[in-house]
Amino acid sequence: MLGELFKGLRTTLKYMFTKPVTVQYPEVKRPVRERFRGRHELKRFGNGMERCIGCALCAAACPADAILVIPAENDPEKPNSPGERYAATYEINMLRCIFCGYCEDACPTNAIVLEHQYELSFYDRQSSIYTKEMLLVPKEKGYGEIPPVLQQLNRRPSPPAQIDL
Amino acid sequence: MADVTLVIDGKTVTVPAGTNIVDAARAANIDIPVFCYHPKMNPVGMCRMCLVEVWTPMIDRATNQPILNEDGTPKMGLMMNKLQPGCTTPVSPGMEVRTKTDKVQGTQRGILEFLLTSHPLDCPVCDKGGECPLQNLTMGWGPTTSRFDYEDKVHNVKPIQLGDLIYLDRERCILCSRCVRFEDEIAGDPVLGFDNRGRKWEIISQSDPVFDSKFSGNTTDICPVGALTSADFRFKARVWELRSIPSIDPHGCEGANITVDMRHNDVKRIMPRENDYVNEIWIADKTRFAHRFASSSERLTTPLIRRGDKLEPCSWEEAIRTVSEKFVEIKNAKGSDALAGLAGDHLANEDLYVFQKFMREVLGSNNIDQRVGSPADLPLNTSGYRLGVGQGTNLITLGKESSVFVIGADPEEEAPVYLLRLRGIKRRGGNLIVANGRSTKLDDAATTRLRYSYGDEVSLVQALSAVLVQENLAHEAANQRFKNIANLRQSLGSINIAQAAEKLGIAEETLRETARMLASSQNLIVMYGHEAQQVGAALESALENLVILTGAYGRANNGLLPLLPHNNTRGAIDMGIRPDAGPGYRTLASAGSSASEMWTAAQLGRIRGMYIAGLDPVGKFPASRAGIEALEFLVVQELFLTETAKLADVVLPAAAFIEREGTFTNAERRVQRFRQARLPLGESREDWRIIKDIALAVLEQTTITLPAVSKSAQQQGRGKNAQVSTAVAVAESPSAAWNYITVSDIAAEVAERVPGYSAASYSKLSATGSNGNWGRQVNEPVYYDGTSYENTEGVGVQLASLVEDPKSTIAVEVPKVSPQKSGDGLTLVGAVANYNGGTLMRDSLLLKRLMAPTLFVSNEDAKRLNLQKGDQVEVASVTSSVVLSVNIDPTLKPGTVVAYSNLAAAPMGNLLTAPRTSVRVTKVEA
C-alpha cells in the first residue's frame, strides 16, 4: 500500500527534472511541420504581379464551397496579373474552410498556398470572410516558390505556370 | 430516300441514304469525335478528327459483282486503302466502319496532339473552358502529354476585337471554319474569311464595320474552342458556376427560346435554347446582347407619387391606395367611360389578361388599347389568327415543293431569326418569292424577286390571285366555308393581267409563273411585314384571298405569317387589349375608344383617368402629350422613368421579364413559357400583381351588390351542404375573382376563359418538355458544340387558327384598290430598324451598332433633287420635320423615300401623319 504511494511519487519526481512536453501557448508557439495547412495566402510573382488569374478552379475544387472568385479583365496599361484576366474579388470564408488544400492543388499558377498561420478566430461571422486584400501578400515579399513538384517534372507544365521556369 | 444498312463497330445500323458516317454512328450511340463538322452545316472535312476505317465490299471490275471470300461472305476492302473522314463520307450498303482500331485511335491522338501544338492551353483564363469541345475531346481521345515546346507555339497578340461584340484569339483557333461557314451558309453575311497560309493562317473579317452581321453571337456558340468569345460575357464567370433559366426573347415576334445564365442574382449571359419550331439553335444578336436593360441602374425601384411638381418615392400601400381611390372617384363622378387603359405588347399574356379584366370588369370601361394612338399605328392584326399558319407549322421541315411568299417585309430588321429560317428553306430547295418595294437582305436568298412601287402592293397580290382564277389554278375544295367567294372570283376574273403587269412594271410572264408556282406548291406560307401592314385592311384581305385561292390554309406549314412589331403583339391581340373585342376575339356589345380617340377625348375632358402599363405614348408619339396633360389622373406602370412616366401622378415600378414568370405568344401563335431567373429589382413587382392589388383595392371601395340569381343559388346550397354554399359564396364575391396567388392561377383562368388558350395551360406547356420530343437527340448540340442548348422547358404549344376550326366560316372581302395619290410630293415609307436604340437596348453593347438615321432616296429622285450620298436633308410633313442623312437606294422606284421610323436618335412620332406620309424633302446646305 505504502510502496505503491512511493512508486507514484517516484514517477512524479522523475518528471520534475525532465523537459516538459507542454508549451505555454500563446506565449510560446510550437513550430509547425513543413506541410502544415494553415491560413491561405495569395502569392505574387517576382515582379510584384499577382499570381492569381481569377480562373476560379480553386472555387470549383473546394469541397466546402468556401471560396468566391469574381473575375474581371485586366487593364492592359496597369495589369494586376500576367495575361488578360485577374480576380476582382477573391474571398475565403474561414468558417467554411476545412483546410484540405484542394485549392492549392487546383491552382494552375501556384497563387494560393496554405501557409503556417493557424490562429483564426473571429468575434462574428462577417469577419471570418477573408478578402483579397487580407489574403494577398505585400508587394515586396511573398513570391511564391516554385513548388518541388514542378521542379521534378521532366516536361513543361501548363503555360500559366511556365512563367516560373 | 431508301434506307441503308451498315455495320459500325459490330453494331448494325439502318439510316437514310445520304447520311454521313458521323451521324450514322451517333444514331448507334457510337461517338466519332469531330471539330469542323456541324449537323447544321455542310461538311468540309477540314479538321481530320473524324478519320475512321471504312471497309466496303470489293467489286470485281470485270463482272461488277462482289468478290466473295471462300466462305461466301463478301471480301471487304479498306476504302482508298487509308482512313476516311466520317463527316464527308456518305454511308453505303454493306459498309463496315471501324472506329476503335489502333490505327484510328493512333490517328485521333496524333490529330489532337497536332492541334494542340499551336493551342496555348490557357484554359484557366478562357471563357470557353468548361464547355469546350477541344477540352472534351482531348480528355476523351487525346494524348496525355505533348512533345511540343511551348516556346515553339504560335504566339499572337492576345484577343483582337472582331467587331464590338466578338473577340478573336488567334492562338486558340484551330481553323475549323465553322464560323466562316455559318456566316456564309446560314446567316448569308459573308463577312468572315481566311487569310494567309500555313502557321500564319487566320480568320479575318472582311466587312466594314468589322463583323457586320446580326447573328455574330452564334459563332461563339459553335466555335469548338475559345477562339471566338462574346464581349458581353468576357471574364464574367466560369460556365460551371452558372444557373440556366429557360426564358423567351423579349424583343422579337419570333419568340426565340433562350436561357438566362445567372450567377447569384446577376444575369451573366443569354444563350439560345434549342427549339426547331422556333429558332433551331440560333438567336439574333439583339436577343443575346440587349439584356442589360433589366439590370440598369436607371430602373425604377420604388413607387413614385406626385407631390407638387415632383415625383417622390412612396410606399406600395400609399401608391395602391391613391390609385384605387382616384379611379373610384373618377368612376363615381364621371362614369366608367371616363377611364381608359393602355397596355404595351411587351407584357406577358397573364398581365394583359388581368389588365383588360380590370378595365372591363372592375372599372367597366372598354377604352383599352395597345397602340400609342399615332396615325402611323399599324392596324391590329387579325389575319394571322383567321388564316394564320396551321398547327404544327415548322419551317425547318420545309424544302422542296414548298414556297414562301414574302411581301413588304424585311425579316433581317423585323424578326432576324426568320431570315435564317427562310434561307434554310431556300437551301433545302424551296421557293422563296420576295416582293418588296426596295432591296432587303432577304433578296440575296430569293428565288424570285418582284419589285413593286410602294402603293401597288394590293394590285400585285390581286394580279397574282387573278392569274390563279383565270388559269383555273384556284383551289376549289372549301368554297362553301368562305362567304362571298363567288364575288371575289368574279372580280378577279375581270382583271386584265397584261394591263396589271404593265402598270406594276413586272413582266406578265413573271407574274404568271409566280402564281403557278404558288398554286403548285404543296406548302405555301405567306409572310408579310411592317411595310405590308402599313397598307392596311385592303392588303390583308388580298393576302387572305390569295391563301384561300391556293388552298394554303388550315393545315401545318400553310397560311399567313405576319411579322408583328413586338414579342407579344399576338398575345395582346388575343387577350383583348383592344377597344373593339374582348379576349379571344369576342365581339363586344359596345366598342370603347381606341388610343387615338383617347387623346381627343382626354382633351375634351371626357376621359379623366388613365392607366398605362408598359407603353410610352409620349416618347413614341409626342402629340399625345396634350391629351395626357389634360388628364386628371395618370398611373404609369413601367421599368424606367419614360417621358410618359414623367407626367404621371403615380408611377409603379414593374419587374422585368427575367424577374417573373409568364407566357408570350409569338407570330405563329405559339405560346411559350418563360421562367423567373432572379428576384425583382428593388421594390418592383410583377405587372399582374400590381394590377391585382389595384383591382382588389378598387373592389374594396365600391359597394358590392350580389346579383339576385346567385343569392338564391347560395340559399339552395345552404340547405343541402354548408361547404358547397361557402364555396359558391366565395366564388361569387367579386374580389374572389381576383384571388390570384401565383401567375399560374391567372394562366388557368386564361385557359378556361380565352378561346384557344385552353390548349396552352401550364400543365400542357410543361408536358412538351419531356424526353426531347422535339425531334432531336437529347443533348446532340452539346456533343458538337460543347455549349448547352438543351431545352428543358419544351417547345411551347401552337394555337389553332380560326380556319382550322371546321365549323368556322370566314367572310371574304374583295379588296378595294385605292387610287394612287398623284402629286409632286414624295411618300415617306417608315421602315423598322432592329438596332433602334429603344428602351430595351439600354446599356447593351449594341448601342455602338445603332442604325444611323438615314433617308433612302431613289436614283431618279436624287437626281431631281440634286442629292448625293451623305447629304443632309430636311424631311417635312404637314406636322413636323426631321433632318436625315441621304443614302441612295437604286432599287427604290421614284416617288418614294424610306426612313427608319423607330429610331430613338431620330424620332418620327410627330412627323408621320399616316402609315405612309407624304413629305417634302429639301437639302440642308451645310
What does this structure look like?
The complex is a heterodimer of chains A (165) and B (926). Chain A is an alpha+beta fold and 165 residues long. In chain A, 23% of the residues lie in helices and 15% in strands. Chain A contains six helices and five strands, in the order αβαββαββααα. In chain A, the strands form two sheets. In chain A, strands 2-3-5 form a three-stranded antiparallel β-sheet. The model of chain A has no long low-confidence stretch (mean pLDDT 86). With 926 residues, chain B is of the alpha/beta class. Chain B contains 29 helices and 39 strands. In chain B, α7 crosses α23. The longest helix of chain B has 19 residues. At the A-B interface, α2, β2 and α6 of A face loops of B.
Task: Give the SSE map.
The complex is a heterodimer of chains A (165) and B (926).
Chain A lengths: L1 H15 L23 E3 L14 H5 L5 E7 L11 E9 L8 H5 L5 E3 L14 E2 L1 H4 L12 H5 L6 H4 L3
Antiparallel strand pairs in A: 1-4, 2-3, 3-5
Chain B lengths: L2 E6 L2 E6 L4 H7 L23 E7 L1 E2 L4 E2 L9 E3 L5 E2 L10 E3 L3 H16 L15 H9 L17 E4 L3 E4 L8 H10 L4 E4 L6 E4 L11 H6 L5 E3 L12 E6 L8 E7 L2 E7 L12 H5 L14 E4 L2 E4 L2 H19 L4 E5 L5 H14 L5 E2 L13 H4 L15 E6 L3 H4 L1 H12 L3 E6 L11 E4 L5 H14 L11 E2 L1 H9 L3 H8 L3 H13 L2 E6 L1 H4 L3 H14 L8 E4 L6 H6 L20 H9 L5 E5 L3 H4 L3 H6 L3 E6 L4 H4 L3 E4 L8 E4 L4 E5 L12 H15 L6 H13 L1 H11 L10 H11 L8 H6 L12 H6 L11 E2 L11 E2 L14 E6 L22 E4 L1 H7 L6 E5 L4 E8 L7 E5 L15 E8 L3
Helix pairs in contact in B: 2-3, 7-23, 8-23, 8-26, 12-14, 12-15, 12-17, 24-25
